[in-house]
Each structure stands twice: as structure tokens, then as C-alpha cells.
User: Which sequence fits this backbone?
């Protein structure tokens, strides 16, 4: 039986830089509802993301913040440093217009990534209102509901997307 490695998936050997942003309350992982979020802490999640990135040949830079202004400043500061973004807007998702605009200005693709299935969450908390993320319509992808594995899925997907775009910019 053949053992696959992350680099077997790659289409190029270029080292991309991915900026990962976690919004409000993500710093409280490990203290939040374990049935929804598991027991992983943000520091453990960040270490997993960096380890997965290293195995995939991708450099990770990351931010966790409860403040949308800090997130906007970080996006503007790192727009020239990253090739793509991953974002879990968390509590900012329903009014993330500033973040969406910052991503648009950066000209880089982004993957919206959530620990929990936000559609299920909103359906349970506000069944009479259909709430959607302000980022989804412009995102390259949306992954949710797989806890920390959502990040691995997004990381692999956005990396392969960058590889394809590098090989065929018209694709």
C-alpha cells in the first residue's frame, strides 16, 4: 500500500504564504462548548496549521483577534506578504463588509473557514431569520463543520488553487 504525503498533492514546488485569520472568541477555543468546538485550544490549532503548512510546503502567518479594526490593519499590513488568505470571521461573519473589502483590495483569494456548521447554528438560534456570512459570496471556497479539520481542508484547497493559478493563470 502506497503512503501519500501532502507534497504528493502539490502541482508545483513553490512555497506559498497563507495568512490565517481567526475572529472574535476563537482565542477561547478549549473553553467553548466542547460538543461544538471540541477541546482544542487556539494555540494547538495554530500549531496544527503551521505543521500542516510545513508538510504541504506552505508558510503560515496567523492572527487571532476579537477586534475587527485589528483584523483590517493586519490584512492591509500583510497584503503584499501573502498569496492567499484563510479566514474564520467567527462573530464578525454577519457584518464582515470591512473584511470583505480588505480582502478584495488585497487582490488575493480567500477561503472562508468555520469550526462549526454556521447554517445549523443560525437555524437553531434564529429559525425565523436566514443569516449568511458577509464573506461567502466573494470567497474562493467555504468549509465548515469539521472543527479543526475544516482548516486542513481549506489549507489544502487554497494551496492547490494557487498551484493551478500559477501553472495556468487563465484557468
Assistant:
Amino acid at each position: 500500500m502506497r503512503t501519500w504525503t501532502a507534497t504528493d498533492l502539490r502541482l508545483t514546488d513553490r512555497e506559498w504564504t497563507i495568512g490565517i485569520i481567526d475572529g472574535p472568541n476563537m482565542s477561547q477555543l478549549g473553553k467553548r462548548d466542547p460538543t461544538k468546538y471540541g477541546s482544542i485550544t487556539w494555540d494547538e490549532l495554530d500549531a496544527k496549521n503551521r505543521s500542516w503548512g510545513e508538510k504541504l510546503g506552505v508558510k503560515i502567518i496567523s492572527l487571532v483577534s476579537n477586534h475587527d479594526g485589528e483584523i483590517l490593519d493586519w490584512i492591509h499590513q500583510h497584503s503584499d506578504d501573502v498569496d492567499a488568505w484563510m479566514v474564520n470571521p467567527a462573530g464578525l461573519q454577519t457584518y464582515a463588509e470591512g473584511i470583505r473589502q480588505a480582502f478584495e483590495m488585497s487582490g488575493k483569494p480567500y477561503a472562508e473557514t468555520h469550526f462549526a456548521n454556521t447554517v445549523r447554528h443560525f437555524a437553531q438560534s434564529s429559525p425565523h431569520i436566514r443569516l449568511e456570512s458577509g464573506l461567502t459570496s466573494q470567497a474562493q471556497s467555504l468549509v465548515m463543520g469539521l472543527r479543526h479539520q475544516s482548516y486542513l481542508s481549506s489549507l489544502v484547497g487554497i494551496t492547490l488553487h494557487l498551484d493551478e493559478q500559477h501553472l495556468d493563470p487563465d484557468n
The chain is about 40% helix and 15% strand. The chain has one domain: 14-167.
